Amino acid sequence: MRSTRRRLGLLCIVAASVVVAGCTSLTLAIANIPATFGDYSVERNIQYAAGVARRLDVYTPTAAGRARPVVVFFHGGGWDSGSKAQYRFVAEALSTRGYVVVLPEYRRYPQVRFPGFVEDAAQAVAWTRTHAAEFGGDPARLFLMGHSAGAHIAAMLNFDERFLRAAGVDPHSIKGFIGLAGPYDFLPLNTRTLEAIFAPTERYADSQPINFVDGGESPSLVLHGLADSTVWPRNSQRLAAKIRERGGRVAEHYYEGVSHGGILAGLSVYYRDRRTVLEEIGKFVDSP
User: Fold this and answer.
1) Which CATH architecture has domain 2-286?
2) How far apart are CA 149 and CA 152, in angstroms?
């Protein structure tokens, strides 16, 4: 068994160079290889609402401890692709910090348009608040997190209170929002697919998290690679500026030469010691 793991480790090192290429199925699969041996237990495909796409996985650190912070991580994929199964390495990274991690699936386009996927996310958060203690989590320390489209979804929940309230969750019970390379201020839409996802035109403004910042929401942490050409860094910069302008709390971190997928790769074992992504998330979650 030890030799098998050693050979697998060598394979991972050889493959690591492609992890930062982007969020393709291949690179995500490579990032997930070491996470197989993470020090956590996982319960998969728990139904949080009716429907095949409305399931979630819960990752719990195996080490004993008091009630732990809970991080709900929403995967990316442009609102029309992606799967929670591709992001085991994110759960492994966060569990190494001692957090209970929830990875929800949600309906995507063309099955639903905006705001259907945000409504699903709100239901997943409601389930998490109700059941967190069963997995050793502290529902009073619940954080919303996402990458790319998942960061947009988490931001919509954090800044537009209507979604969580409709799901029976007090928005002010959320401890914080963590966004990695998120689109928060992305009008005008530049593809026919995006136009279809967020149609009709008169509702486009309702899809922009920045339009709902009032300064009274929970604290935010935004992280972005400055070489990101998929979601421009100005999304995070403008959101942070708006939060400060309204008197809210935000921390922001930018990484020179890091791409859209590269910011997420910072949570993989290959780059965890070379980028401060996990460290900054830890500081934010663990702060009083």
Assistant:
1) 3-Layer(aba) Sandwich (3.40)
2) 5
